[in-house]
Amino acid sequence: MTATQETGTAAAPWVGTRMQRKEDQALLTGRATWTDDIAPPGTLHMVVVRSPLPHARIVAIDTTAAAAVPGVRAVLTAADVDDEFLAGIPCGWPVTEDIRIPDHRPLARDEVNHVGDGVAVVLATGAAAARDGADLVDVEYAELPAVVDMADALADGAPVVHEEMGTNHCYTWPLATGDVDTAFADAEVVVSGRYLQQRVIPSPMEPRAVVCVPDPVGAGFTVYTATQVPHFVRDILAAVTGIPDTRIRVVAPDVGGGFGAKLNVYAEEFLALVLARRLNTPVKWTETRSEHHQATTHGRGQIQDVSVAATRDGRILAMKVELLADMGAYLQLLTPGIAVFGAFTFCGLYDFGHYSFTAKGVFTNLTPTDAYRGAGRSEAAYGHERIMDDLARELGLDAAEVRLRNLHPKFLEPRTVPSGVQYDSGDYETCMRRAMELVGYDELRAEQARRRSSSDPVQIGIGFGNFTESGGLSPSKVAAGVRLQSGGWEQATVRMTTSGRVEVVTGTSPHGQGHETAWSQIVADRLGVHPDDVEVLHGDTLVAPFGRDTYGSRSLAVGGTAVHLAAGKVLDKAMRIAAHLLEADESDLEFTGGRFAVAGTAGPSVTIQEVAGAASLANDLPEGMEPNLTADSAFDPPNFTWPFGTHVCVTEVDTETGFTRIRRYVAVDDCGVVVNPTIVEGQLHGGIAQGIGQALYEHATFDEAGNPTAGNLASYAVPAATDLPHFELEQLVTPSPTNPMGVKGIGESGAIGSSPAVVNAVIDAVAHLGVTHVDMPATPQAVWRAITAASGQTA
């Protein structure tokens, strides 16, 4: 922070400043309020009884013993609660007209379809009593065959997850541009690869929780929930329960991370609401970690078959992508759309003429999948960066050179790319060459050659992760075009109080992104005030009734832009009042440092705080003007934003054990105009850590019968701080023409560029030994087995 900013001078240019986050003091000193902290008098604690089997018919449920436990107030099954719901849990992204959507009830009535499927709930005066009661609910099951593997699920005679459908095929979604078949037929080189996106489990520090409180006079309900999407929760709860949305207030208190897991409306939220209505008492549920692994959505889960047609000098002519996408047992809010979202960025930063993409959604007897940080775009980046390395190996060319030959040239206005969409702006070669310079690429290749020639048991590898992502989700008309059942606008209100302080109401709902700080910086610059004089209100549908919430790298590009525009309207009104007070023409006024004055004169002036006071008194305003400085703005973006970057990972791989150590990690990102560099770097740190986790450690595994074998954090490997390297970060700025601030977004970029960079680096380290493929996670055992297999030995 500069000296000027330390003194709090309002004239400081706050956008672009490393201002400390306003949120952190409460979060770091234990003064935050989490959903689990909320326990109104009379609260009943809810525990869900879950299926231990992946697929079975429910023969009978005996609740007698559970109901007799001291403190237990109710034990309910689907037969008791089904009439509380107008419909099942909805899917908000039915990607095709003929998509198959199974009935998904908050409690399973006749059949369970994955381990963790809820079959009953126990309500008690304490959490321990509720757990004791749940342990005594006796469920008789008739086990059915389960299907786990996507390819097996589509085979003739495979067990069917939902018998009434008669198939495990959910949908097929195609996209094609150009003449792919001719391009492949005429190509000098064709390279194909199959890449697996293993299931991963979002692991936010705060698990999911919900507390539903009925109004004592019957006016409605307040639902406290650990969510990224309070407005979605309100709207969907209203639609499914029949309670008017004006009678449902949803509050997201402090939320300890989401990563997509909290971009949903879950069975427990529906159950808490209808049971609070039924019993007229507060109902509370907090998930355990094992529940999180079983019943909160998983991420990823794809089989990617990718092919490229190219010339001998490495220029790509066409790309063909065929995906199998694991839906799990049901469709949650966005489940089918994740693979479809990736279709538009599977071509990456590369310029070629012909492209085809087909995604097939497949049902399995596993936990449903849904969005996970970088949803769709991370999977796409992994596929296109793996095939780029495979192409380079096939041609005997350097991996960097093949990429450089295929990058789009610099563009500052929208450019149509092979998938048919328009990227907003890009300078990909500058970005990639800067990353190569920072990491010392030529020196690393020389070191690699020396180690290989000396048969060093520890070899180094260099891996690239070039990427772009579709941020700023999303233009409402585009959303409708891909059948996403939500507008992509965002709402903001900015108002100056009588004292001259500023309140900002935003429809975005943060869970670690730093919105209170960044939005304060935007408004401070716009209105000439200090960020400390700006209060940002969010996460409460009573305070902010309109909003589309936080996901898809949209908060700044859409929500922040709405704040910027609303503040501009306030400034315009203040300018008119100031001109009236100064008896001057608006066109003659200038506004600097929070003060209006006639340009080029030393005459009288008026501060924006004085204007706010005059607007409140309202006794000396321009004719016909309404009192107060307040304005609303709703911004619906005309296009996505397209952040991009080059991540370079340098690994050391012990060829005798397969152990991988990340020696260096360099990332050059371009997220357009940067509001707060510290926040940008923090988002990159977290995202890169998650990508490294997927690349080297994390895997939601199941046995052949569909039973989870990574059911908690003792068996599911999340990287610790000691597993991560120092991240060397740099930002370039290519402003987006999509919004007046020129911003693009950064929240998911780290998770998109990192996993391909790491895996490419692992394979590159041992490619001279004949290893051309390792699936994620590239554990020491997996790498050692690949080395052993390439040498012709038996592992």
How would you summarize the topology of this molecule?
Elements: H1 3-6, H2 24-28, E1 44-50, E2 56-62, H3 64-67, E3 72-77, H4 78-81, E4 111-112, E5 118-124, H5 127-135, E6 138-143, H6 150-153, E7 169-177, H7 180-186, E8 189-200, E9 209-214, E10 221-225, H8 230-241, E11 248-251, H9 267-279, E12 283-286, H10 289-295, E13 299-310, E14 316-328, H11 337-342, E15 354-363, H12 377-395, H13 399-406, E16 415-416, E17 422-423, H14 428-439, H15 441-453, E18 458-468, H16 476-481, E19 490-496, E20 502-506, H17 515-527, E21 534-537, H18 555-582, E22 589-592, E23 595-598, E24 605-607, H19 608-617, E25 629-635, E26 644-654, E27 660-670, H20 677-696, E28 727-732, H21 749-766, H22 780-790
Parallel strand pairs: 1-12, 10-11, 14-15, 20-21, 27-28
Antiparallel strand pairs: 1-5, 2-4, 2-6, 3-5, 7-15, 8-13, 9-10, 9-12, 13-14, 16-17, 18-26, 19-20, 19-25, 22-23, 23-24, 26-27
Helix pairs in contact: 8-9, 12-13, 12-21, 17-18, 18-19, 20-21
Organism: Pseudonocardia tropica
Domain Aldehyde oxidase/xanthine dehydrogenase a/b hammerhead: 29-145
Keywords: Molybdenum, Oxidoreductase
